[in-house]
Amino acid sequence: MPDAQQHAAIALDGITKTFPGVRALSDVSLALYPGEVTALVGENGAGKSTLVKILTGIYQPDGGEITIGGAPVSFPTAEAASEHGVTAIHQETVLFDALTVAENIFIGHAPTNRFGLIDWKEIHVRARDILDSIGARIDPRHRLSELGIANRHMVAVARALSVDARVVIMDEPTAALSQKEIEELYELVEKLKADGKAILFISHKFDEIFRIADRYTVFRDGEMVGEGKIAETDENALVELMVGRPVDQVFPKQEVAIGEPVLTVSGYRHPTEFEDIGFSLRRGEILGFYGLVGAGRSEFMQALFGITRPSAGAVRIDDEIAVIRSPSEAVKQGIVYVPEERGTQGTIAAMPIFENVTLPSLAKVSRRGFVRMAEEFSLAREYTGRLDLRAASLDQPVGNLSGGNQQKVVIAKWLATQPKVIILDEPTKGIDIGSKSAVHAFMSELAGRGLSIIMVSSEIPEILGMSDRVIVMREGRIVAEFPREHMSAEKLVRAAAGIGAAA
Ligand SMILES: Nc1ncnc2c1ncn2[C@@H]1O[C@H](COP(=O)(O)OP(=O)(O)OP(=O)(O)O)[C@@H](O)[C@H]1O
């Protein structure tokens, strides 16, 4: 055994995992060290989540060894992994409103006294200690229902740490957080490091990897293709390892002739979420919507798509008044919306990729009285291919795809309906850096063919790279608008935060 592995908090050696038709992990090794953050990077489908599931006892490896302090261990169940101090902080940890903070932290593994009864005094003391250790000022005796979102998140973290963790796994922990919460999470990571925990951090965001990781490990197609210290590498080198080739053009926007207005929105208002939204979108245009989390962008898009009802407002499509009272009316008028949360609602997990992609398009053609099966299938093949979908075959159930590849299926499915207007909410969230440029290139090409795109994004480089024009929202209102030639990161940030004079 290499010397370094002796110091590792946990080491995986020669791990292999195969699913029918897919070798998800092939002889991979990885060591995590106390007090250090190791970033695990790789394209969608590279095998990151599979490794996490092996480390947390959800999947069993087909071969290979896991050792702690040099001694072999096995995790036949999730409980076994947590008994060995391996824990994962999930966004979707289930918490119970009616229970107290301390009960939520220790539910399922409460300390007991020598009579086998739950030791309440001990529970409160330990809950207090854990909450203190992560800097959460929450009373363990309060009911969960009394807490706000940020504090609930802290309770979920405390719950993960209550198993006396030696290894903490964070799988894309900042994907759904606001900037302020992200900063708090980074502070928490620093505390965990100082506490000697070994942290495995999975992220598609390179800025955060370079900010908080000490080491990196790169997976490509189920193999470990590189590892080392963050201080001794740079972004280009990591991307090249991940993708297997240099990636230069991250935002390959084409110049597209912009046509006449396709969609004109005026006076859109909602009692609580947004007010007086008005703009028009032209043929071939990519219109960015920038703002902080909570600025009302998604809420407005949901109203425009007929998911919620505005209290006032009018829409014109191709200069005709349009009434949109439901998503199906929106689709009929040629408007589709790809929401940010695509995972659970966007696809039917047990259905093959093919059918998922053609589902809404088939409904459309059969309404017209005929089904152009072959045409729809070739469209599905083209669209999934153009979005860089990684799947063994299009007959595979969507539920077996990696998270990022499921996202691509949802985008392909709505693009394949060939709408006039597509609203993409955070189109590249969860999508790896190499595929990201494929998604962007395809968006740009479709705009060139006359599609009009509204792109809600919180990523400034994506907005700057892809938009012909950007609208900035803050507190439910449009506060600024910039054409491509006048956009800058500073102007966007200032307008979104309400600092200085808005344009
Ligand atoms: N339960 C399963 N059945 C069949 N194949 C699976 C299953 N789980 C994962 N796979 C396959 O294993 C491979 C690795 O997937 P994994 O989810 O580990 O990727 P990932 O690196 O986490 O991707 P992402 O960045 O998109 O989250 C993929 O080809 C995926 O389709």
From TrEMBL:
Source species, domain of life: Bacteria
Domain ABC transporter: 10-246, 258-500
Pfam families: ABC_tran
EC number: 3.6.3.17
Protein topology in the membrane: Peripheral membrane protein
Annotated localization: Cell membrane
InterPro entries, sorted: AAA+_ATPase, ABC_carbohydrate_import_ATPase, ABC_transporter-like_ATP-bd, ABC_transporter-like_CS, P-loop_NTPase
First-listed, main subcellular location of the protein, grouped into a coarse class: membrane
UniProtKB keywords: ATP-binding, Cell membrane, Hydrolase, Membrane, Nucleotide-binding, Plasmid, Repeat, Sugar transport, Translocase, Transport
Protein name as it appears in the record: Ribose import ATP-binding protein RbsA
Species of the source: Martelella mediterranea DSM 17316
